[in-house]
């Protein structure tokens, strides 16, 4: 009887050992590829999931870009709108006209370029300064911090058209809120200045741009501050480092990777900004606020010279590509020098 029981036990152990390598596929088990068809399906799945994004990128950006580059080599005016493919071939004439800074077209484009550079420097610098200061201020816990965060993000959450149109009403000379506060309430200005025409239009445009973009800086810097260990600040405080020393030695170096990407994104957004000046000034922007995006729009849809406008757009694209590549190269070298 004992020998029979032992034989049964040995038989059961043998059956379990044979059945052990067999694994049943459950809900969380990744199915194995069976045959060439399954292996091909597994390799093609990532590309299939990327296909909608690639198609949209092709339709929204790449094809219009290729058409715009082709148009820049054509003498396309209002006389060829119905059949713009029949427009005469201009070669590089549109480009030479755009960069001839002694001629009126090139001189106006160069002035618009300098205005855009000054506007970008002012807007990006103030956005970074205000957003970073607000993020540092709200880093510590205190009552009402969540409400302040929500209020700070309000300009970024508002639709751009509603926000800029509201600012356009506020900048009105006779019944605008800005002149009412500065002149009637505070008495800072001698009279009621014009904000949407003349030299003051540059400051109005910069004000709206900063108001619209600094919450984005605040949001990104706040996220970056969460990755800085609090032990660093505690150790610095024990060593006698003050608030400014902690910001200089700990906060800013830790935020360097975040700021590198943030400044590049702000630069591209601001340099290409079309909605803000168009909603503030309409088709004809003042000379002091003649951004290059509005200038290209006027060259294309106001004077009906689409070939020259397309050439200006291609030149702007090349400039942004060169600046972006140089910026990424410099920042990558700086990062390797710090790591080394």
UniProtKB/TrEMBL annotation:
Keyword terms: Cell membrane, Membrane, Transmembrane, Transmembrane helix, Transport
Gene3D superfamilies hit by this protein: MetI-like
Membrane-related topology note: Multi-pass membrane protein
SUPFAM superfamilies per the UniProt record, alphabetical: MetI-like
GO biological process, one term: transmembrane transport
Pfam families the record matches: BPD_transp_1
Domain of life per record: Bacteria
Transmembrane segments: 47-73, 113-138, 150-170, 202-225, 253-271, 310-330
Domain named ABC transmembrane type-1: residues: 113-327
Start-end of Basic and acidic residues biased regions: 7-27
Location of the protein in the cell: Cell membrane
Region Disordered, residue ranges: 1-35
CC annotations in GO: plasma membrane
Family: Belongs to the binding-protein-dependent transport system permease family.
PANTHER family in alphabetical order: ABC TRANSPORTER PERMEASE PROTEIN, INNER MEMBRANE ABC TRANSPORTER PERMEASE PROTEIN YCJO
Identification of the protein by name: ABC transporter permease
């Amino acid at each position: 009887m004992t020998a029979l029981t032992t034989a049964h036990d040995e038989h059961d152990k043998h059956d379990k050992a044979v059945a052990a390598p067999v694994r049943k596929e459950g809900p969380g088990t990744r199915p194995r590829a069976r045959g060439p068809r399954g292996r091909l399906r597994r390799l093609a799945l990532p590309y299939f999931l990327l296909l909608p994004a690639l198609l949209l990128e092709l339709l929204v950006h790449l094809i219009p870009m290729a058409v715009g580059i082709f148009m820049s080599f054509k003498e396309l005016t209002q006389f060829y709108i119905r059949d713009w493919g029949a427009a005469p071939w201009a070669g590089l004439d549109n480009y030479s006209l755009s960069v001839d800074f002694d001629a009126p077209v090139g001189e106006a484009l160069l002035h618009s370029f300098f205005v855009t550079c000054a506007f970008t420097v002012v807007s990006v610098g103030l956005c970074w300064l205000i957003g970073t200061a607000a993020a540092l201020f709200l880093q510590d816990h205190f009552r009402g911090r969540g409400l302040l965060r929500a209020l700070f993000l309000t300009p970024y959450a508002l639709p751009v058209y509603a926000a800029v149109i509201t600012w356009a009403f506020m900048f009105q000379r006779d019944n605008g809120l800005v002149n009412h506060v500065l002149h009637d309430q505070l008495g800072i200005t001698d009279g009621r200045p014009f904000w949407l025409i003349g030299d003051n239009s540059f400051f109005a445009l910069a004000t709206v741009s900063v108001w619209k973009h600094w919450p984005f800086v605040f949001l990104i810097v706040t996220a970056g501050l969460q990755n800085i260990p609090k032990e660093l600040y505690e150790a610095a405080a024990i060593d006698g480092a003050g608030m400014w020393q902690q910001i200089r030695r700990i906060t800013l170096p830790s935020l360097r990777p975040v700021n590198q990407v943030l400044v590049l994104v702000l630069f591209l957004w601001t340099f290409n900004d079309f909605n803000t000046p168009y909603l503030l000034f309409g088709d004809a922007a003042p000379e002091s606020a003649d951004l290059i995006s509005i200038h290209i729009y006027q060259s294309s849809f106001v004077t009906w010279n689409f070939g020259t406008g397309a050439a200006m757009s291609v030149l702007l694209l090349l400039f942004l590509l060169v600046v972006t590549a140089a910026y990424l190269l410099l920042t990558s070298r700086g990062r390797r020098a710090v790591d080394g």
